[in-house]
Every structure is written in C-alpha cells, then in structure tokens.
Amino acid sequence: MSVQTMSNNTSRYLGITSGVLSLLATTGCTQVPSIALFGAYFPDWLFCIVGGIVAAAILRTLMPNILGSEEFGSGALLCYLALVTICAVIGWLVFFGG
C-alpha cells in the first residue's frame, strides 16, 4: 500500500467520522431549555443561578448555628462561590432533571 493511498483512506475516514460526530452533537438541540415568563423566554440556568444565590444566602445565615463558627479564613469568597454553584446545580437537577 502506498503512502498516497493511506493518506486518502485516512482523510476519507476522518471526514466520515467528523460528519457522524457533528450529527450526534446536534441531537441535543431538540428542546430549548427556556421558560416563558411574562411573555419573554428566559433560560433555565438563569433561574438556577438566582435560586442558588438565594439558597446560599439562607445557608450563610444558618451556618454559624450549624458549624458554631462563621470563620472561613481567607477562602470565604471561594467557599460562598462553591456553595452557590452547588445549590444551583442541585436546583437544576431537582427542577429541570438536567
């Protein structure tokens, strides 16, 4: 088998593979993840982020009672950001079944 033949076969298989993968990637676009609210459509993740912020704010007020201390040290911002992210992902899974 010559190098030219191997090159043609490789490029043909690469083209077929990329075509199949692009078709498989578009199968997730069948449903728009948005909610109609007051005549406008808002993405689901927007509600999850707002819910995550509210849940993290509530948990932040309860944390001194649960942990016995409010000290997070120098990583407080990172801890609260992680708490918002965890609450938002849990909200996504509970309400939208993502």
Question: Your description of this structure?
Answer:
The protein has 98 residues and is mainly alpha-helical. Helix content is 69%, strand content 8%. The protein is built from three helices and two strands, in the order H-E-E-H-H. A two-stranded antiparallel sheet has the order 1-2. A hairpin with a 2-residue loop joins strand 1 and strand 2. Helix 2 packs across helix 3 (76-96). The model has no long low-confidence stretch (mean pLDDT 76).
Secondary structure layout plus pairing:
Blueprint: H1 3-25, E1 34-37, E2 40-43, H2 44-67, H3 76-96
Antiparallel strand pairs: 1-2
Helix pairs in contact: 2-3
For the residues shown, what is the average pLDDT? 76
Major β-sheet profile: 2 strands, antiparallel
Order of helices and strands: HEEHH
Alpha carbon gap, first and last residue = 49 Å
Number of DSSP E strands: 2
Give the helix/strand class. mainly alpha
The helicity comes to 55-70%
How much of the sequence lies in strands comes to: 5-15%
Q: Which radius of gyration do the C-alpha atoms yield?
A: 24 Å
Features:
98 residues; mainly alpha; two-stranded antiparallel ribbon; 3 helices; 2 strands
Question: Gist?
Answer:
The protein has three helices and two strands. With 98 residues, the chain is mostly helical.
